[in-house]
Amino acid sequence: MNGTRMFQSAPAVLVASVALCLPVLAPDFMLFEFSIAVSYGIAILGLNLLLGFSGQICLAQGALFGIGAYTTAIFNVNFGMDPIVTLPFAAIVTSLIGVLIGLPALRLQGLQLAIVTFGVASAFPQLLLKMDSITGGVTGLAIDQPMAPRWFPGSQELWLYGLSLICAAASVFMLSRLLRGDTGRLLRALRDNPLVAESLGVNLTKGRLAAFAASSALAGLGGGLFCILNGFISPQSFLPMKSIDILIGGIVGGITSMAGAFIGAVFIVFVPGWTTAINPALGGLIYGLCLIAMMMVARQGIAGLPIGRGLQALKHLFNKKGLSRVSGAVPGQLGGE
Amino acid sequence: MVLFFQLLIDGLASGAIYASLALALVLIFRATRIVNFGQGEMATLSAYCAWQLCEWGVPIALSLLIVGAASFLLGVLVFRAVIKPVSKASTETVVVVTLGLFVFFQALCLWLWGADQRAFPAMFPGGGWDILGVRVTASTLGILLVLLCLAATMGAIFRFTRLGLAMRASAYSSEKSLLVGIRVERMLMLGWGFAATTGFIAAALVGPRLFLSPTMMMPILLYALASATLGGWDSPLGALVGGLIVGVAESLGATFLPFIGADLRVVIPIAVTLVILLVRPVGLFGSSTVVKV
Amino acid sequence: MNILTVRDLSAGYGATDVLHKVNFTVEQGTIVALLGANGAGKTTILRALSGLLPSRGVVEFGGTDLRQCSPARRVELGLAHIPQGRGTFGDFSVEENLAAGAFTIRDKKQIAEDMERWYSVFPRLAERRRQQAGSLSGGEQQMLALARALMSRPKLLMCDEPSLGLAPAITEQIFEIFKSLNDEHGMTLLIVEQNADLTLQFAHTAYVMEAGDITVSGLASELLSNEAVQQSYLGV
């Protein structure tokens, strides 16, 4: 799938318009949850880049998300930096660490990478506890949330929601530029056939590392944003399940769709909320079934399903009408091939 | 020196548990070239079932037998319902599906039995022996014996029976096996069944050491993945040796490496995995076929 | 009497058909050669016959319609297929390969007897019983593949490019064995080959394939002497 087309596709327009209309429709507390969803969505974008575009499966995206969150928190708590200013640092630091994880990945194949990154995800909370002098250990870190400026007419939640949307827009913009450019072409070549790509002179190492760097940067940005929105983080927020949650979001939304990343994020934020009221295990059951069912029936994810297909069917209908008119005017010409 | 031997013995005991789960993973990998991230959680479900039978008054030996057989069916069922339809799909797809199993079975246990921890009945007597100051408990010895029996049974099945030959052949090449008249799909199904039972044995060994909880096998899975990678993904013997090595490395490392200590012991299996993947990706006993995955 | 009758057989990979309604028969007790250039569809025919590929059309083998049969069932019925590139289990010992070949035979005594019988035909294999199949030479592996296929007591033996990668002398040796199997045991053979000249010397009848269809058929001796056929189809 081509980056430009992805960005202009119907689900993208729909997701963007819903996101813009939300402040009018949703109460403030829901705006907060949507903001959290946006932060996950950014991390999922990163995962999609790895999984959907370079076919590498990383199960440590939750840990990288956590590294971004801790970077923001530590820069704020220890150096008194404005949390918003820390966001680029969160992206850069996480990107560097992601490349460190990605380095062995250069030699690893799909399954091995999954195993190693699963290990990283499992060890991350323990590492946070061990480095309690800077991470605050079990108690975690609380940051000074950026307050809405006095000229801002809306609520604090709206201000933070706006901030999330700006981060999301920036991520989508950067990612689609990346995918449209040389790196994107390189990644697609690598995904479709690494052997051929390499024999044609495509630099496998460079491509994979670039994918890891960009993917981790997005995870870090999402994590930093999450930290700002939540105002408080602790190892509890970054258990191994977080990585699997992010993967679920990616799969449910569709791993080659940018709009899908945010649909998937909304799914992983709201589904457990709704289901735990009925039974705490229900969310997990739904998650598990979704992962399995999506892989068996709908690999394109939600973004590839109802809206996209409906529009395609409509387009198909119009095209057919157009065609039949032409062939009616010049009989036999189209069928002559 | 006494401390060293004590740690060695304790490490072997936990290593035996990692080894049995690793063996389950390897059985599945050999049969279907899939790493089943849901293996541990399937085993947890089995362990809960055994516990439930005991609660209902079934003697422990009998309930272990019943659940052992039921686990086999669970493995077969999972293969038929979930794995077979995606068997020709890409690696990423299959990994996601097995993660789906992981999430699903964990949630299922949580749903059926809640988050409260349950005490799994002890299978071995409580006593032990002091040998030159090293404490060897009956449970440690029991666990090692179970592993030994498991290994011997598996080895005998693979080496000396028609079924074992067919399973090995199917693992080597499904097409060549079809051409000699082996019903390959049935063999893969049996592979999943055996693996589920083996996984259950691992969970039953863990049960009395920890408490039963829906997440109890998660850390064990990590160690088992490391053990299988260390031993070589297509080698059952490798899984056993790998498991024991990882167990001992963990036990010694957590005590003798101050920067790791008890809280960071989880880093040890990751380090083992990374080192072996970079130095010898096929593992200690693996053959070169695995790298092509 | 025909042991194998194929009518309107179509098969292929994915959406495209490689075979287009192929018709041919194999008479009991003969050696039949299936010739043709690379990509003509010879291997596809064998894969469709042994059930590795889904196919359409009628395949009758010894009076049984094979369409409903699984690959395993076809072996039980007496159809053996030695695929291109030997089809031995590389990390099994020679003996284990033979045991795997006898998978469809339940009688242990019969298996032991057959094993000794083929060891006496292929003494090189007897010497290397415990050796890994993967460590054998190309010729030895082809012999092992042949012995392995014979362990299932086939009525029809299909062999895909037996000469591939073998020295001419060894190829000739393999064909001599085919001939003696046919002479002494009345075995029916269907041999796919690119090496037309050699194969035609051993075969009774032959079919020539071109682009997924059989274009020429006849007695092997006729094809061998017919210069037009030689030039246009066999590229000799």
Automatic annotation (TrEMBL), chain A:
It comes from the Bacteria. GO terms for cellular component: plasma membrane. Pfam families: BPD_transp_2 (PF02653). InterPro entries: ABC_transp_permease, LivM-like. It is found in: Cell membrane. Keywords: Cell membrane, Membrane, Transmembrane, Transmembrane helix. It is a multi-pass membrane protein. One of its GO terms (molecular function) is branched-chain amino acid transmembrane transporter activity. The chain crosses the membrane at residues 31-51, 58-79, 85-106, 158-179, 209-232, 244-271, 277-298. PANTHER family: HIGH-AFFINITY BRANCHED-CHAIN AMINO ACID TRANSPORT SYSTEM PERMEASE (PTHR30482), HIGH-AFFINITY BRANCHED-CHAIN AMINO ACID TRANSPORT SYSTEM PERMEASE PROTEIN LIVM (PTHR30482:SF20). This is Branched-chain amino acid ABC transporter permease. It comes from Ensifer adhaerens (Sinorhizobium morelense).
From TrEMBL, chain B:
GO terms for molecular function: transmembrane transporter activity. It is a multi-pass membrane protein. One of its GO terms (biological process) is amino acid transport. The keyword Transmembrane helix applies. InterPro entries: ABC_transp_permease, BCAA_transport_permease. One of its GO terms (cellular component) is plasma membrane. It is found in: Cell membrane. Belongs to the binding-protein-dependent transport system permease family. LivHM subfamily. This is ABC transporter permease. It comes from Ensifer adhaerens (Sinorhizobium morelense).
TrEMBL record, chain C:
SMART domains: AAA. Residues 4-236 form the ABC transporter domain. GO terms for biological process: L-amino acid transport. Keywords: Amino-acid transport, ATP-binding, Nucleotide-binding, Transport. InterPro entries: AAA+_ATPase (IPR003593), ABC_transporter-like_ATP-bd (IPR003439), ABC_transporter-like_CS (IPR017871), BCAA_Transport_ATP-bd_LivF (IPR052156), P-loop_NTPase (IPR027417). Signal peptide: none annotated. GO terms for molecular function: ATP binding; ATP hydrolysis activity; branched-chain amino acid transmembrane transporter activity. The keyword Transport applies. It holds the Pfam family ABC_tran. Belongs to the ABC transporter superfamily. This is ABC transporter ATP-binding protein.
